[in-house]
Design brief:
chloroplast, mainly alpha, flat, 3 helices, 2 domains, about 85% helix, about 0% strand
């Protein structure tokens, strides 16, 4: 088992491919939902609301006027 991890550490390409595969398999259902206009509109609205809420939370946390 020890030689396995030494072999994995030698190849950072393996890590990049694992991370890429993780994001592709995780985000695939989201991309599939964006094929219709109704779902795309809802996604954009929800994403904007999340960003606005995060903006105000960070602004209040840092006491920026």
């Amino acid at each position: 088992m020890n030689s396995f991890w030494k072999n994995i550490i030698k190849y950072p390409r393996f890590l990049i491919s694992i991370i890429t595969g993780f994001f592709l398999t995780t985000l695939y259902p989201l991309f599939k939902l964006l094929t219709t206009n109704k779902n795309r509109f809802l996604f954009i609205v929800i994403l904007n609301l999340i960003l606005i809420v995060l903006y105000y939370i960070i602004r209040l946390m840092l006491d920026i006027n």
